[in-house]
Amino acid sequence: MASLAFYLAVSVLLAQNTDAFNCSKAPIYVDIHKRAVHDSPVFQYGSFIGVGTPAQNHSLWPSLSQNHTSFAAHTYCGNSTLRDCDKSTGGFFNSQDSTTFSEDNNFQSLDNGNNSTFEGYFGQDTLRLYTHYFETDGASQTLLEDSTIKVAEEGSVVPGMVGLGLSSTVLRDLAARDMISGKTYSLYIGQGFDRAGGMVNGSNVFGGYDSGRFTGATYKYPMNTARLNPMTVKIKDIFITNTEDPNSNVSLFDNTKFPDMKSRPDTFEAEITTSQFPLSLPYQITQNFISHLSAEEDNTWGDNSLKLKSAFSGSLSIVLEDGFTVTFPPEVLMNASNITPVQSRDEDSTAPFYLGTAFLGQTYLMADYEQQAFYLAEAVQKNNAVMPVTFCPKGPAPTAYERPQQGAWVKQGLIGAVIGGVLGGMGIAVCVYCFVLSCRRKVAERKAEKRAQRDKQAKFAQMEVEDAMEFDPPPKSATPFFWKKR
Ligand SMILES: *[C@@H]1O[C@H](CO)[C@@H](O)[C@H](O)[C@H]1NC(C)=O
Ligand SMILES: *[C@@H]1O[C@H](CO)[C@@H](O)[C@H](O)[C@H]1NC(C)=O
Ligand SMILES: *[C@@H]1O[C@H](CO)[C@@H](O)[C@H](O)[C@H]1NC(C)=O
Ligand SMILES: *[C@@H]1O[C@H](CO)[C@@H](O)[C@H](O)[C@H]1NC(C)=O
Ligand SMILES: *[C@@H]1O[C@H](CO)[C@@H](O)[C@H](O)[C@H]1NC(C)=O
Ligand SMILES: *[C@@H]1O[C@H](CO)[C@@H](O)[C@H](O)[C@H]1NC(C)=O
Ligand SMILES: *[C@@H]1O[C@H](CO)[C@@H](O)[C@H](O)[C@H]1NC(C)=O
Ligand SMILES: *[C@@H]1O[C@H](CO)[C@@H](O)[C@H](O)[C@H]1NC(C)=O
Ligand SMILES: *[C@@H]1O[C@H](CO)[C@@H](O)[C@H](O)[C@H]1NC(C)=O
């Protein structure tokens, strides 16, 4: 009796955990890079998302606080203090030109948390999420029809945003319509935007994560729903290491090094945000940074990033409470103009502390909104394999793709391409074949052997990567060209 009850209880638990979400749903991958956007003279960096019918294509900046996805109206720049407004909005949306737009005058905004963002009107229209693995191929699109959007008419910020706040309407609609496994989302912001000054492109994965985009362990954190940016972490140390002398480790928390502090500062909580590039650190730690590197105030980028008086070659490492350490390499700690990714801070400021996109340029973020938790891992800067996989809500922690050691075109990342895109169909065919095989075996074998069988299948599934090496690689001449794409 007792054991029957136990098994019933266990199976009910399992059912609750797994059956609520269909973790066989493929994720939706949307890349982030520079491209032509609607009604703007310059290429802009952001998520490749269109709106309306016919499509008006935009580059939307992911927002971890805003819940609505928004587009700039043509009138925005007439009413805005945004710098270089005509080339910074992510595109312009003309709702009159869209046959699928319907305005919703009585809509109550979900974004009341930040007073000072932007004003506009709401409506429903078709969102077009583009997946574009390779420049040589066309993009494919996932249509999200009748989704709520905000059209921005007045404000001071970049108004073209994908809203990924706690009540994100895009995630809600994708999950409610069974287009992804649940409300999970992953972000690599990349470094291809002007302030970061780098080359690497980024990506969004709705309902999944790009397992080729990070390496090493993943670290899990609860969301803090009281914060405007609910993804927060606690920082216990920050140290600077001089490239010329790798043993020169100076901690900005060290009160023997910085006698202004009577004792070692406490751990502090910082919000991960995409709404600014630099870090905003507690006043005293900012002062220690200034005195250690001889920094001074500057506002070249309009974000109060500190500037060094003379060049310094070294790295800055941020140590989170659980030991996860994110290191900014020398070219990020100080760019060619001596500008750092650390913001000045007033002594009496009560603003939250922030880890901005400088931090996200080094980190892969994977968020599970269903359990209000998120994972961080070290980003792979120059991967050439796109490996989107399903991120099962409330499921096991995401795991990084392990690159096979051997094989020339494996080294070039082509296996990743095979799985990620080009030959995805073949991958599915292999899976279907495995499934058929497993069905036959299951019929033939006794129930007691099922578990062992499943283990075998899991091993076989892992071997598919090796199997794929038997496919013919693309022509040699095409290969380098191919790999410039991401
Ligand atoms: C789960 O999703 C897959 C892929 O879309 C689909 O084939 C399958 O029928 C779904 N399963 C359930 C139980 O809905
Ligand atoms: C400012 O926005 C309003 C709508 O809120 C619009 O009617 C007006 O034309 C805009 N002003 C300019 C100068 O674009
Ligand atoms: C987004 O929605 C959450 C509630 O789920 C709210 O706490 C937050 O303030 C909203 N974001 C903004 C920018 O208002
Ligand atoms: C928004 O602004 C009003 C005054 O304009 C102020 O009273 C209120 O506290 C502000 N709310 C937030 C969340 O900043
Ligand atoms: C709130 O709005 C201000 C001004 O528009 C912006 O600078 C700030 O980054 C926003 N805060 C968040 C958490 O989005
Ligand atoms: C928007 O992007 C899609 C996908 O690349 C493309 O097919 C379409 O022509 C673009 N539309 C415009 C108006 O540029
Ligand atoms: C550094 O920032 C300056 C802005 O002062 C910019 O002009 C320059 O391109 C940046 N350099 C690099 C290497 O990112
Ligand atoms: C620098 O200090 C940190 C801890 O503060 C330590 O983890 C790291 O190994 C040190 N690096 C060197 C080169 O001493
Ligand atoms: C980023 O994307 C752009 C636009 O597709 C492309 O031209 C560029 O080569 C990509 N950068 C890298 C480093 O792959």
Largest sheet: 13 strands, mixed
How many β-strand stretches?
A: 24
| Uncertain segments | 4-16, 408-486
Determine the mean pLDDT.
Answer: 83
Shape: globular
List keywords for this structure.
486 residues; alpha+beta; Cathepsin D, subunit A, domain 1; 13-stranded mixed β-sheet; six-stranded mixed β-sheet; globular; disordered C terminus; binds 2-acetamido-2-deoxy-beta-D-glucopyranose
Write the topology of this structure.
Elements: H1 2-19, E1 28-35, E2 44-51, E3 56-63, E4 69-72, E5 102-103, E6 118-131, E7 140-155, E8 161-163, H2 169-176, E9 184-188, E10 202-206, E11 208-210, E12 214-222, E13 232-242, E14 245-251, E15 268-272, H3 283-293, E16 295-296, E17 305-308, E18 314-320, E19 325-328, H4 330-333, E20 339-343, E21 353-355, H5 357-360, E22 363-368, E23 373-379, E24 388-390, H6 408-411, H7 414-420, H8 424-444, H9 450-467, H10 478-482
Parallel strand pairs: 3-8, 4-7, 15-21
Antiparallel strand pairs: 1-2, 1-10, 2-3, 2-6, 5-6, 6-7, 9-10, 9-22, 11-24, 12-23, 13-14, 13-15, 13-18, 16-17, 17-20, 18-19, 22-23
The chain binds 2-acetamido-2-deoxy-beta-D-glucopyranose (9 copies).
